[in-house]
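Today's session is about reading a structure prediction critically. Students often jump straight to the picture, but the first step is always the sequence itself: look for stretches that repeat, for charged clusters, for runs of hydrophobic residues. Only then move on to the predicted structure, which in these notes is written as discrete structure tokens rather than atom positions. Here is the chain we will use throughout the hour.
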Amino acid sequence: METAADRWFYSGLIRLHILHHAVEGPIFGLGIIEELAHHGYKLSPGALYPLLHSMERMGYLRSTEKRSGKWSRRVYRATPLGRQILQDAKQKVRELFAELFEKESVMPAPRSKARSVRA
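Below is the predicted structure for this chain, in token form.
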């Protein structure tokens, strides 16, 4: 079961996912909720929309209202600032990925706990 601490910890990754998809093309609430669910994130509209609104206030996203007959939908796209921050974040993610995974393949295997260590 996901806790509030889990949601807080992963919130940065969720923001990166949102920004990535908003750079690729227009996104909307239910669509991004479904996309994030494919990655294992369970967001309710009550959690997602404040996140989208805050990203818009910060200048990373811009929204417009699309109308079709009786219904309307708020659609979000990345701004130039959002595109730039995503490019910057990609570099940081590459560095983190290297630290988390790539160095494991070149580092020696950890010692067994059964061995004694001399001081």
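Discussion point for the tutorial: Strands lie at 27-28, 61-68, 71-78.
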